[in-house]
Design a protein that fits this description.
The complex is a heterodimer of chains A (516) and B (313).
Chain A: E1 2-3, H1 11-23, E2 39-44, H2 59-62, E3 74-76, E4 82-84, E5 87-92, E6 98-103, H3 117-128, H4 133-136, E7 142-149, E8 152-157, H5 162-167, E9 194-200, E10 204-209, E11 222-227, H6 231-239, E12 245-246, H7 254-259, H8 262-265, E13 267-282, H9 292-301, H10 304-311, E14 318-320, H11 346-355, E15 362-368, H12 372-387, E16 391-397, H13 399-407, E17 416-421, H14 444-455, H15 459-476, E18 479-491, E19 495-496, E20 513-514
Parallel strand pairs in A: 2-11, 15-16, 15-17
Antiparallel strand pairs in A: 1-5, 3-4, 5-6, 6-8, 7-8, 9-10, 10-11, 12-18, 13-17, 13-18, 14-18, 19-20
Helix pairs in contact in A: 9-11, 14-15
Chain B: H1 2-29, H2 34-39, H3 45-55, H4 61-73, H5 87-125, H6 130-141, H7 144-158, H8 174-208, H9 211-218, H10 223-248, H11 250-260, H12 266-275, H13 279-307
Classes of the chains: A alpha+beta (516), B mainly alpha (313).
Chain lengths: 516, 313
């Protein structure tokens, strides 16, 4: 066995994080810290409904729990260097197939119990066997996870995987007690700096300092996240001083934020790592959506520039793109003739649809009733398709139904849909088409390229493989990326300390502090 | 009195059983199996069958209904299909919010509606009631989302007198709860008061034209005296009816108000369950609403009995 030593291998995220700090964060004026203020109130435009991070992938949840209530097995800093977290040390075999993690059993969960190796095994199994593909990704090559000692967990891989170890610093590596099984929807337990003191659906999520936390006590010891579903009302609450910040704002109010001068009165942050993609997705299992001619034609019709303009974003916060990945991703490139595999050409598209007898096919488009930003986006896209001469039957369903029936490994239930999300290339790695969940794109060629990337021994080989995978994703056009956008946050000017997320998109409350 | 109450209570129980049975049947007969509604339109038959078995939907309807009623009587409202959170847990936090908002809005409505209605009725005899009428018309026409936003901007953001939203339980800090209630109650109460003012005015004008009032006036009573001695009591009957209707229909108004002021109330919960197709949560909440409306109707009937001596003959 050799001790884990690697800095180059994870240059992908390091580059992203460096870019992140240079792109979006407005640097606050240095001011003396106000130690008398130890609490804060944030607003969130969506209530997660349930608090189980294993089954609930909503941004409204993963913003708050991963960085505050839970700790990952291994931490990765801004330079992507690993450091101890729940695992105090680790080692891997020379062939990279066996990993041993020494668990820091001196750490305790917020319920007072010590972390055991069995808890780590339980946690990793939860994500490995769960239904959220992004969390399953790091376990793609994992063949067994065992507690080999009271304080040791051994993970055996079928093949070397660079994604596995890095994944232990993400959602897939969060550690929770086995005793939390079945209770996580309203009583999540972790070993992070905070615990959930109260969750009142429709009202708020209250965090208090976790007295059993092993790290340094944070300056903020009490934080409340209020669910203000009416976005204009959240702006009024910020203006009235009832909330101290909106770490993420709905794109539905971005134009209002600019026109009403909120960016002058409050500190604005553009956060590429908290951003997401918008993309069109076809149901690859149904005709004619399974026909590449049909999909390519739709991809040719879409006008990304008009789409971005229609959404009315602050400058630089939304960028049209044809490839897959948020702005900090290494594969990210804004849409141009050179970066798009499929060029925009509406006339050519309609001609090819007519030739295939598909120009009159009524497209079944599923949108969301309760996500304002995507509702407007769906309005724009469906109108673009109709303007091109296509028939679009739009059916909007609520997010809860969408999540429960589409995300949770159920059969795809739509012809075409508009989605927003994290933009991880691993999302489309699929071994068994019968078992893939909401992602209808399942390509053996794509999966092979991503496996090559995962097993790459050099950074150049890794980059080549993921670039090829991205190009293939564009060419297959089951998933048609439209834009990448940043997150946009507004804060009270005296509240500072925001840092880029390292686990996923989390808002780490422990980083914040008040200035005088 | 006892016979009247017993009869009314008997009707109440029959109504509860009939409507709950209807709701139970509607949920099961409309749109196929509840399991297929929960799982979505394109769920596989195997999935639907498995869920039906899990939820006990394969058993005879009468058995299911009996079990459901027994659960309701025990106060067991089940759990959300999607979140797994017990409905009683959700109700414990949501019910006080909605009840407080409804009571607050009603109080505001009464404070606005009765004096304005009376003033308008009195002025109508002097030909000066049109201003009050005009104001009450505006009050009826104002949409809740607009009046709520305006009140928030003026009294929340500019003056800082009241919070623009949110909720603090009564048990935590009653004074703060009251402050949180003011703007939503006024927002919802303006409409109620305006409707009420018009009905109070009409009722009083009608009563004041009655023979017994005219006789009183002939014996030297002033307009005010005849109003307060005989007019108000007789005008109360139609007003109580309207008030009953307003209370029954409050849920519709509280949906908007609770959303606008980020209040975690029952109406937002119902809306969330309907939008999310959490069908058994909807079923149980609708039964609770029916129960609420029937209780309000019972109270209105008893009020009639107490107010109108003719019913006691």
């Amino acid at each position: 066995m050799r001790k884990f030593r690697n800095s180059r291998a994870f240059g992908f995220l390091a580059a992203g994080l460096v870019a992140l700090t240079s792109v979006g964060v407005s640097s606050p004026v240095q001011a003396a810290e106000d130690t008398s203020k130890t609490s804060l109130t944030f607003s969130m435009f969506q209530d997660p409904g349930r608090l189980d991070v294993v089954t609930q992938p909503a941004t409204s949840l993963i913003l708050w729990l991963p960085g505050n209530v839970y700790e990952p097995l291994v931490s990765f800093d801004a330079e992507d260097k690993p450091s101890p977290a729940v695992a105090k040390s680790w080692s891997s075999s020379p062939d990279g197939k066996v990993w041993k993690f020494k668990i820091d059993t001196a750490r305790k969960f917020s319920d007072g119990t010590s972390i055991k190796a069995s808890d780590v095994v339980y946690s990793l199994n939860q994500f490995q066997n769960g239904s959220i593909l992004a969390y399953k990704g790091p376990f793609a090559n994992v063949s067994s996870i065992k507690a080999t000692k009271k304080d040791e967990v051994t993970v055996t891989l079928a093949a070397k995987s660079r994604g596995f170890f890095r994944g232990m610093g993400t959602m897939a590596g969060l550690v929770m007690p086995a005793s939390s099984d079945g209770k996580r929807n309203n009583q999540p337990i972790g070993s992070g700096p905070y615990k959930v003191a109260e969750y009142v659906p429709g009202s708020h999520l209250q965090f208090t300092y976790n007295n059993n936390y092993s790290g340094k006590k944070p300056r903020i010891t009490s934080a409340r996240v209020r669910f203000i579903t009416d976005s204009p009302a959240s702006l009024l609450a910020l203006k009235a001083g009832e909330v101290d910040g909106l770490p993420i704002t709905s794109t539905a109010i971005w134009s209002r934020i600019i026109s009403e001068g909120y960016t002058k009165d409050f500190r604005r942050t553009l956060k590429p790592a908290s951003g997401e993609l918008h993309w069109l997705m076809f149901n690859q299992t149904q005709a004619p959506y399974n026909n590449p001619v049909f999909r390519t034609a739709i991809a040719q019709i879409v006008d990304r520039d008009a789409y971005v303009a229609g959404l009315g974003a602050p400058k630089g916060a939304m960028v049209p793109q044809c490839g897959w990945g948020i702005m900090t991703a290494r594969t990210f490139k804004p849409a141009t003739k050179d970066t798009c595999v499929i060029d925009r050409d509406g006339k050519k598209a309609m001609a090819s649809l007519k030739a295939a007898g598909l120009d009159t096919f009524p497209i079944e488009f599923v949108g969301l009733t309760d996500v304002p930003a995507l509702r407007l986006a769906a309005d724009i896209i469906t109108q673009q398709l109709r303007n091109a001469g296509l028939t679009v039957n739009r059916r909007d369903i609520p997010l809860a139904q969408y999540s429960s029936t589409i995300f949770n490994a159920r059969p795809p239930q739509y012809g075409m849909s508009l989605m927003g999300g994290g933009g991880n290339l691993d999302d489309f790695v699929c071994k068994d088409p019968a078992k893939y969940g909401y992602q209808t794109y399942c390509s053996s060629a794509y999966t092979k390229l991503m496996q090559q990337a995962d097993r790459a021994t050099t950074d150049a080989a890794y980059l080549k493989a993921i670039t090829s995978a991205n190009e293939l994703l564009q060419k297959d056009a089951v998933v048609v990326p439209l834009l990448a956008r940043t997150g946009l946050g507004l804060y009270n000017k005296k509240l500072t300390g925001w840092k880029p997320p390292t686990i996923r998109v989390e808002v780490a409350l422990a980083n914040y502090y008040w200035t005088k | 009195m006892i016979i009247f109450l017993a009869r009314r209570f008997g009707f109440f129980v029959i109504s509860v059983l009939a409507t709950s049975g209807l709701i139970f049947l509607l949920v099961r007969l409309l749109g196929g199996s509840p399991a297929s509604v929960l799982l979505g339109e394109f769920s596989t038959p195997e999935d639907v069958l498995a869920l039906e078995k899990q939820l006990g939907l394969h058993r005879p309807l009468l058995v299911q209904y009996g079990e459901w009623m027994a659960e309701l009587l025990r106060g067991d409202f089940g759990a959300s299909f999607y979140s797994g959170i017990e409905l009683t847990t959700l109700l414990k936090s949501a019910l006080p919010v909605s009840v407080s908002l409804s009571v607050g809005a009603l109080l505001v409505g009464l404070v606005i509606g009765i004096p304005f209605g009376i003033a308008s009725a009195l002025r109508s005899f002097q030909g000066k009631g049109s201003l009050v009428d005009f104001i009450s018309q505006i009050g009826i026409a104002l949409p809740i989302f607009w009046s709520g936003a305006v009140l928030s901007i003026i009294f929340g953001v500019s003056l800082g007198w009241f919070p623009t939203g949110g909720w603090v339980p009564w048990s935590d800090a009653p004074a703060t709860t009251l402050r949180h209630l003011v703007l939503p109650s006024v927002t919802l109460g303006i409409g109620i008061g305006s409707v009420l003012a018009r009905f109070v005015r009409t009722a009083i004008v009608e009563v004041m034209r009655q023979d017994f009032v005219r006789t009183g006036r002939a014996f030297g009573m002033s307009v005010q005296q005849s109003l307060f001695v005989v007019g108000l009591r007789n005008a109360a009957l139609p007003v109580v009816t309207v008030l009953g209707n307003i209370v029954s229909h409050l849920v519709g108004g509280t949906v908007l108000t609770e959303t606008l002021f980020s209040m975690p109330g029952l109406s937002r919960m119902i809306l969330g369950a309907v939008v999310g197709r959490d069908i058994f949560v909807v079923q149980n909440l609708v039964v609770l609403l029916v129960f609420y409306v029937l209780v309000v109707n019972l109270i209105v009937d008893v009020s009639y009995y107490l107010l109108d001596k003719r019913l006691r003959i």
